[in-house]
Amino acid sequence: MTSSIGLLLASLDAGQIVGIVLGVVAALAAGAAAGLFGYRSYSNNKIGLAKREAERILEEAGLEAKAIRKDGLLEAKEQQNRLRSEFERETKEKRAEWQRTDNRLLQKENALDKREDALGKKEDALDRKTAELEKAQKSVEDSRERLKGIEEELNKSQEILRGELERVAGMTREEAEQELKNALLEDVKKGAAAEAKAIEAEARENAAREAQNIIVTAIQRCAADHATENTVSVVSLPSDEMKGRIIGRMGRNIRALESATGVDLIIDDTPDVITLSSFDPVRREVARLTLEKLVADGRIHPARIEEVADKMRREVNASIKEAGEEAVFEVGVHGLHPELVKILGRLKYRTSYGQNVLKHSVEVALLASLMAQELGIDPKIAKRAGLLHDIGKAIDHEVEGTHVQIGVDLAKRYKESGEVIHAIAAHHNDIEPETMEAVLVQAADAISSARPGARRESIENYVKRIEKLEDIAGSFSGVEQTFAVQAGREIRVMVKPEQVDDAATVFLAREIAEKLENELEYPGQIKVNVIREVRSVDYAK
């Protein structure tokens, strides 16, 4: 490009070059002028736009400022109205509170005025009483002075009288005092006996009435079976020929039966009957069921006897467990040890004077619970102790000792509470009852045992009990005759009137009752009736 321009300049002359240069300069000057004019026009337009934009912004700012000022005024008015409302509300509340305070102060002032009036009246009354007391004290002092003079005169008179009495009676002062003491002691003893008799009669009447109400309520709410039961110990046979089959050849069948069941079979001349003899009621029940099953089946031989005996034993054990669970469920006692429940179920086959012991235990538990509710005592312990009080009878043929001690040992072994153990130990007065629950178990046991139809007693035992009752009552000095009446529920004691006076009959009745409680076993209670009769006989001639 440069070489081309150089060649072109070389081909031109000086005048042409100058003309070209001038033309170029003129063109540059015209371009610069045009650019300057265009730039100035652009700058003017830009400045105009900037001014208009500034004016628009100023106008919008003014409008926005007006709107902000208007909103601020409205908000300020709302704030002012809200503050005015709060101020008026607070002022109203303060005014109400001041009014209440004024009312309370006014009430307190009125109460203080009333108290001042009352205190004034009390002070006046106190002044009057003080004056009266001073007057009474003065009167007492005067009376004391007079009594002192009278006492001195009385002492002088007593000395004179004592000397005269000693002279007339021929007794010393000590002898007369002893005789007077004896006479007073006899009078006091008679008066105390009469008073004790009256108090005891009133207490017995009130206690009997209250106890009757509680017992009647408990019995009415306890729906127990009143029929006695006997454990069956006799098995009926279809014919006497069956006895030979039961005995078997050379007695092998009867020996197998006795060995398998642990029960003695008594086969005598009684027609169509076999008697089972055993102290264990469960074994006797297993033997009864086994024998009935064999008689009904007809197949009687040693192998069959052992098979049926094992089956009946399992059934009886299941029945025992079920009976114990039913008794626990019926009474509503929870948390008994499973082994204790099984032992309790064994009472299903235990009787006492013809009364089923399991039903008796359930009845005692219900009665003790109901009486505890009537007395406001927690019935749970009474119910539990009532259910377990005769638990020892379930195994008393296997373990040495009384059923009370056996029951206490069982309760301790299976972690029963101390209250339950004490009630079991005290239900026959082996120990003195120390809790209300123990007393209630005693009462419930007596009610269940002594109610009509609950128990039966053999003639021999009844006669022995009546004889012992009369012997105990007749062992006291001054007793002439004794008569047991009302089937042994009352003992009438005839005393010698020259040896036992009216006052001594009260103490004699109490002593006889205590001795009967300690030495005689009996159902229910025995009324001790001491009778003193004086007869004066004369003849008109």
Automatic annotation (TrEMBL):
It is a single-pass membrane protein. Its EC number is 3.1.-.-. SUPFAM superfamilies: Eukaryotic type KH-domain (KH-domain type I), HD-domain/PDEase-like. Residues 357-450 form the HD domain. One of its GO terms (molecular function) is RNA binding. It is found in: Cell membrane. GO terms for biological process: mRNA catabolic process. InterPro entries: HD/PDEase_dom, HD_domain, HDIG_dom, KH_dom, KH_dom_type_1, KH_dom_type_1_sf, Ribonuclease_Y, RNase_Y_N. It comes from the Bacteria. Residues 51-167 form a coiled coil. It is an enzyme of class 3 (hydrolase). It holds the Pfam family HD. Keywords: Cell membrane, Coiled coil, Endonuclease, Hydrolase, Membrane, Nuclease, RNA-binding, Transmembrane, Transmembrane helix. The chain crosses the membrane at residues 17-39. One of its GO terms (cellular component) is plasma membrane. SMART domains: HDc, KH. Belongs to the RNase Y family. Endoribonuclease that initiates mRNA decay. This is Ribonuclease Y. It comes from Candidatus Limadaptatus stercoripullorum.
